[in-house]
Amino acid sequence: MKQSFDQKQYNQTIKTYQPKPNYFINCLKAFVVGGLICMLGEGITTFYVEVFNFSEKDAGNPTVTTLILIAALLTGFGVYDKLGQFAGAGSAVPVTGFANSVSSAALEHKSEGLVLGVATNLFKLAGSVIVFGVVSAYLLGIIRYSWKIWF
Amino acid sequence: MDYVWAFVVGGGICVIGQLLMDIWKLTPAHVMSSFVVAGAVLDAFDLYDNLIEFAGAGATVPITSFGHSLLHGAMEQADEHGIIGIAVGMFQLTSAGIASAILFGFLVAVFFKPKG
Q1: What are φ and ψ of residue B111, in 5° steps?
Q2: Of B20, B22, B57, the CB nearest to A45
Q3: What ipTM was estimated for this complex?
Q4: Structural domain spans, chain B
């Protein structure tokens, strides 16, 4: 996008008025919260392996499902969004952040009805993740497959 | 020890995301999309499996593993059915995550009241 001189100047001018993020504190918060969520995931994985005899690899799916259920419920109670304000990327990057973006988008548009509100907006925020994931996986899959055939 | 590495690696991935948000002013949606692509790229070079073996849930819980699972499922079917298998297997490993996100997201929206 080509920016005109005025826009550039504007961006320069507002910079001094924007709050400077505290990089270290933000990173520490993200590290602790993100790490704790992953530790919880590790605990759930161990639970499925020990109690339901999943193999270490197969336990990934039920773990993700459980985390998504927890995150969706916490979003419903309004807890996850508070956590998100505190932890930033620490709560957005784990798969719980994906679940949060699905349920919060759906919840936000509830007043517009079940079909046009909830169902239509379900993937409003999370859709980009799926689109970019599928497109990149498709292209990389084709590249890797051709590589294997030719070499 | 599993828990320690899950904590360190999972937390480290989140720190990278936080730095992207703070320094380059990316929105969470941009960070999540980039991470999914990064996970798929890492899996294309067979690196992500090593990370999972090393960190367990520290590598499977962050959204990067979504990209990894997409490509992994696609390649599994590609081995059997050729190029068409990429589309067949795309959601094979991630269907649990997407299906449950849709179901629980919908149910939460139906039964809870929006806050704030």
Answers
A1: -95, -15
A2: B57
A3: 0.89
A4: 2-111
